[in-house]
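Ticket #4471: structure export looks truncated?
Reporter: QA, pipeline team
Priority: medium

Steps to reproduce: submit the single chain below to the structure queue and open the exported record.
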Amino acid sequence: MQNYYPSIGGTQIFFQNISERCVKDYGDEVEVFTVNSYFGPEKKQFKLIEPSAETVNGVSVQRFSFIRWHLVFIRFLVKVIAFITQAAPHYFSSVLHGPWSPGLAKAIKETNADVIVAATSQYDYIRYSLYRHKLKNPKPFVIQGAIHFYEDPAKKIFGNKTLQAIKQCDYYLSNTDFEKQWLTALGVAADKIVTVGVGVDMNMFIDGDRNYFREQLKIEDDETLIAYIGRIESTKSIDILLKAIPQVFEKNNKVKLVIAGYANDYLEVLRNIVAGFSEEYQQRIYFLTNLSAKRKIDLFHAIDILVLPSVSESFGMVFLEAWSCKKPVIGTSIGAVECVVTNEVDGLLALPKNVNDLAKKINQLSSDKSKQIELGINGFNKTSQLYTWEAVTKKYRDTYIRAIEKFKASA
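Actual output as written to the record:
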C-alpha cells in the first residue's frame, strides 16, 4: 500500500486495524510493503519514516525508498495536457502516483505470502494481476480500490490498465454498493466484488474530554460548535463550507466553526478565504492542525455537528468516528455518502458544491438540539451494528481465504 503507520489517513488507519486484528484475533502472519514517507509517493511533501523495517503490534512492516525526481516534470505535463484536452491524462497520472520503487516491486514479485492484498486503485502495484502469470510463484490477488467515483459518468476515474487489473484480480473489496454498481457497469464481474465498508474502534471514543477544546477555544455551553475533521485538501470542498458559514453566522450568533486536519499548502487557501470575512466572523472560526490521536478524540466530543462537504468519497470514515461519539453529521448527496448516511435518520445530506443548501442544512440542524441528539444516537446504533472492526475484519479475512481457494482451484 502507498503508506502505513505512522502515516495518517483513512486507508492507513483502515489497513493498520485490519492487519493487527488478523494477527491478534486469528494468529495470522501479516507483512506490509509500503513506501518510506508519511505522504503518498505522488505528493509534493516528503517526510521520511524510519526504520526501513520493524514490527508494529505484531505486523511486519517493510518501507521502501522511491524515486521522486520526475514528479515536478510529470505534474507540469498533467496540467498542460488537462488544460488542452479538458480531460484527465490517466497515463501520466499513473506515472505520477507510481510509486517508482524497484525495491517495492521486487518484494511484491518475490513474496511467499499466501495472498496479496493491494490498496488503493491509483497505484501501479494493483496491476500485479496483469503480469502474475509470468512469475515463477504467482499469488492470489485481492484489490481494495477505495475508488472515489463521480456522479457524472463522463468523468473517467482511471485508465484501462487499472480497469483490466481489477477485472483480472481474484476479488475486489468495495466500500459501498455505489462503488460496486459503478464497477459492474464497467464490466467487472459482480460475483468478484464484495461490499464490506470500513470499520471503527468505538471503544477508543468512550473517554473523550468534551471540555478540553471548548475551554481552550472559549466555546460556551449554549454555543454550537460545527467542525470539519479530516484531510485538508481541495477534493474535500472545505472551501464550500467556509463560503456557507457566513449565512450560518448571520442566522445564529451562537454558532462557531473549527477546521481540523494535517497542515499543508491548501491550508493557506482556506485561511485566505477566512481573511476576507469580517473581524467578528473571523473570530468564530478556528484552525487546528496536526492533532494527536487523543486530541482528535477530544475534539469529536467537543463538537456538536460534523460537516463533510466532499464531492468525492469512497466511504467517509469520519462519519463513523463522529457517530461513535453520538454526534450528528452533514454530508453531501453523492452516491458513496448516500450509502453510508441516511438522510434525516442519522444525518443530513446537502447538495454537492451548493453553498446555499449546505448553509440551510447547517442552520436547520444547529437550531434543533433534539434533532442533533436523535441523529447522533441513530448513527451510533448503526455503527455498532455494521461497522465495528471485528465485523469488518472477519469479512475481509473471509474474502482473503476465498481468494486463496479460488486461485488454487484455477491452477
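Status: closed, not a bug. The export was complete when the record was re-opened. Leaving a note from the reviewer for reference: The chain has two domains: 10-200+389-410, 202-386.
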